[in-house]
Amino acid sequence: MIQREKKEWYLEYHININREGLLGDVSSLLGMMGINIGAINGIDKSIRAFIIKSDSIEKVKRFETLLKEIDDISLRVLREPELKDRLAVRHGRYVKQDKHNKKIFRFERDDLGLLVDFMAEIFKEDGHKLIGIRGMPRVGKTESIVAGSVSAHKKWLFISSTLIKQTVRSSLIKGEYDKDHVYIIDGAVTARERNPKHQELVNEVMTLPSVKVVEHPDLFVETSDYIMDDFDYIIELRAEENQKIEYEAMKQKTVKSKNNLDFGDPFGGFGDGFGDGFGSL
């Protein structure tokens, strides 16, 4: 007997009347329809989210029809799961996404676990991905990238960084070219670096069919041929919700941009004040 492969769906409903046994009723209905529950979690106090599995879209459609007959709940979402859906079920809260620019995702320091999981899922995807991460110093940007790489079972490589000491690479060895690597570029460091070999390496890395993460992407595009539209994801990490992400202090230590704007002393060092130290976690 040939068994059909089961497909996943994301189910989310709002609880109108939180009566005893409601979850059991929904679970029983799923079981009666031959639909399995892969994962379940509550979101806020009134929303319940599931990952369900079925070998038949007809079963899912019939379940959807029956679910709409239950007055105690209101169906919100039933679709093939997206990344943000899987994370909502896993963590019991939504990833914050900009309403106007769907590439922008916002996190706060208390969300580091969610952020690491979010990045790990992106890192697991095959092929080129260009990710920018904005945030003020010592908020946890670099550590989150490294932790996401570990979670995704990927090796990370710093092209430029101020994590422990300033790193500016001008070449890679043979074993460091790998589509499964995560290449990390500190856009502030690279923006001020005058060594043409470093800039050539950055351009070479950007062409690799792999994941590239650029800290301070706004500074990176100031001195490169890339624009913000080239990024697949923009992550904003704040210490708290209302923290402003400002780059003026960093711009004072970068070189002339591609727009011929002089941002000050080209020899000014960033120092630890512009890096993300492990101690910040």
Automatic annotation (TrEMBL):
First and last residue of the signal peptide: none
One Pfam entry name: DUF3388
Highest taxon in the source lineage: Bacteria
Domain DUF3388: 77-262
Name under which the protein is recorded: DUF3388 domain-containing protein
Species name: Staphylococcus canis
